[in-house]
Amino acid sequence: MKRLGTFSICCLLGAAGFVIYSGQGFARAGSNEARKVARPRTTNAAEKKPAEVQTAASAARDGQHDFDFELGTWKIHLKRLEHPLTGSNSWVEFDGTSMTRKVWDGRAQIEEFETDGTTGHIEGLTLRLYNPESHQWNLNWANSRTGVLGQPTIGEFKNGRGEFFDQEAINGRTILVRFIWSEITPNSAHFEQSFSDDGGKTWEANWITDQTRVDASH
């Protein structure tokens, strides 16, 4: 026993060292794995963007019926500025009628417009088209003199007020055009067209109509 004691002790110490070292290794590995599990996953903000955009789009209000008030026949009084964006304050006035009917089950409308004044006769047509994806209307105007649909004016209603915009060339310059529908009741409505040649800082009204319903069936 004594002769084998030194060898046995060395074997026992070596085995113990191996166990201790191995235990430390396992402990470090376990600690690393724990840190891996505990480390929170970072999310790129861009990953959320499509979902947020989709949610915002789905939350947009459906404006398909915003122009329903226009259906039917109206008496029209029109004031038109003769020379827009020239500093002129010369207005001409017209009186007439308009009649609006729906197509595509209300997703579009056609308005026929006819007035007479001291400077002549105006026959016009407005085609209104509703885009269910953007929840916006685009308004297209034509008159019998040219027979061509103009640049669509695009927008929507908020809190009972409709605002629509486009860009057009007037007097050789590209300017902003704005339509506003307001003061809407079952039997009356107010419309203004305005131009801006300073990027929307100021607006000059040049076409103003007030309308009163002729028939009370709509």
Describe the structure.
With 218 residues, the chain is an alpha+beta fold. It has two domains: 2-59, no CATH class; 68-213, Lipocalin (Beta Barrel). Helix content is 24%, strand content 46%. It starts with a helix and ends in a 5-residue tail after the last strand.
Give a summary of the structure in a few sentences.
The protein has 218 residues and is an alpha+beta fold. The chain contains two helices and ten strands; from the N terminus they run ααββββββββββ.
- Distance between the amino and carboxyl termini: 117 Å
Helix content: 10-25%
- C-alpha-based Rg, rounded: 37 Å
Number of domains: 2
Contiguous uncertain segments of 5+ residues: 1-38
Count every beta strand, where a strand is a DSSP E run of 2 or more residues.
10
Structural class: alpha+beta
- Percent of residues in beta strands: over 45%
Q: How many helical elements?
A: 2
Please identify, by name, the CATH architecture of the largest domain: Beta Barrel
| CATH class category label of the largest domain | Mainly Beta
Mean pLDDT across residues: 82
Helix and strand succession? HHEEEEEEEEEE
- What's the shape? globular
The description of the largest β-sheet is: 10 strands, antiparallel, barrel
CATH superfamily of the largest domain: Calycin beta-barrel core domain
State the strand order across the main sheet.
1-2-3-4-5-6-7-8-9-10
What CATH calls the topology of the largest domain is Lipocalin
